[in-house]
What we know:
Layout: E1 36-46, E2 54-59, E3 81-84, H1 85-101, E4 105-109, H2 117-129, E5 133-138, H3 148-152, E6 156-160, H4 166-173, H5 178-189, E7 194-200, H6 208-218, E8 224-231, H7 237-242, H8 257-269
Parallel strand pairs: 2-4, 4-5, 5-6, 6-7, 7-8
Antiparallel strand pairs: 1-2, 1-3
The structure holds iron/sulfur cluster.
Amino acid sequence: MPNVGTLQAGSRHDLRVGASPDAPDESEAESLAGAFGYVHSYESSSRYDGPGLRLVLFVSGCLLRCTYCHNPDTWHLKDGYYVSADQVVDRLAAFAPALRSLDGGLTISGGEAMVQRDFTRRIFAGAKRLGLHTAIETSGFLGDRADDDYLASIDLVLLDIKSGDPETYRKATGRDLAPTLRFAERLAAMNKPVWVRFTLVPGLTDDVNNVDKLAKFVGPMKNVEWVEVQPFHQLGAFKWKAMNLEYKHANTDPPTPDLIKRVLDQLRAAGCNAR
Ligand code: SF4
């Protein structure tokens, strides 16, 4: 068993690499038992990743390779700190009174939380024992891994639908869109609260037809409380450079207010509660 590390407070914008060189590849993580897992960091006071005040845990491992990813240092388990689920829940317990009193809770983000499904399952269960609201931020690509018990421990799904058009999705992420849409339909059928998140990247995801497909897919879903448009930014660019990765968006500007308005208008015209 690898040495157990220490859970690191910090920020999603901190660069963290190489903490666990002997970790398995993220594509094999489903076989991990779940008492231990790999974590990038946690933020204790987000107001952005779900309702109220959130503790956001960034777990390691992702099977997508979004060309605009702000956190490529969460892709591989080997870059995360190896910690126990109990250690995470103990830390969460220290924040629980404040999180409860400010109508918040725990959000697990990444990376992709379902890469380490059984690890995150234990943490969600611990959060529920503490009486906390729980949220997962996920691309939905591994949604088939989320059994009903797993979903029962999650109050809100922040579902990143990175494109409405399958070809654009593949260009942006390197993966298929279909598993994400399948997961979204399953969440709709069970009436699970969802906030859809869409990263608006000029020149990549801003095409009218791409947004239109997303809008028409999400518009009829009554369980989707919000569609949040997230403007592309360059805060993660330095990580690509530091990790010697080829970054395709060095010259991509953030979306203009006019472009953001056009996308919000498209979403609202299809019946989405967009912001
Ligand atoms: S799903 Fe998230 S963590 Fe994974 S590559 Fe895309 S933006 Fe990065």
